[in-house]
Design a protein that fits this description.
- The chain is of the alpha/beta class and 177 residues long.
- Helix content is 32%, strand content 15%.
- The protein is built from six helices and eight strands.
- The strands form two sheets. The protein has a six-stranded parallel β-sheet. Strands 2-3 form a two-stranded antiparallel ribbon.
- Helix 4 links the parallel strand 6 and strand 7.
- Helix 1 runs parallel beside helix 6.
Amino acid sequence: MPRKPSAAIRMLVLDVDGVMTDGRLHFGPRGEALKLFHVRDGLGIKQVAQAGIEVAVISGRKSKMVDVRCRELGVVHVFQGAKDKLAVLEKLCARLKIEPSACACVGDDLPDIPLMRTVALAFAVADAHPEARHAAHLITKLPGGHGAVREVCDYLLTHSDLTPAGPRRPRQKGRAR
């Protein structure tokens, strides 16, 4: 699944459960599900946005915690309860006038594979389902919820051909595989 090396990534699409979190759901006594987010992922998301890359979250589940976290990070393109993530991406791309071939995404499981097969650059987190890893162009060293999103953001920021704003800092080795 090669991509065009010179194509700038204009949008990063993230899954939540298993990507921004470790995929586990913690239920409290009142039945609410708690999610744990990694602070370094948040800084990476902010840095990517500052570099001119749109950030979108497309999740199959609905959670108030996701709304809170995305609001805190300044992510305005948040879609929860998505039964067909690819259809959501296509509508968002049309609205923003961004081609899927100018998008990157991070996934971890079967519902993410249609996105991963459509975008220019697909990442799977280290602990992703084998089929999601197979669909990815790159696999992170870190598992979901443990800094994998930051790893992807750092990768995008250190490959100047991938960012609309160009280079932001020297290239680093050893990020995404």
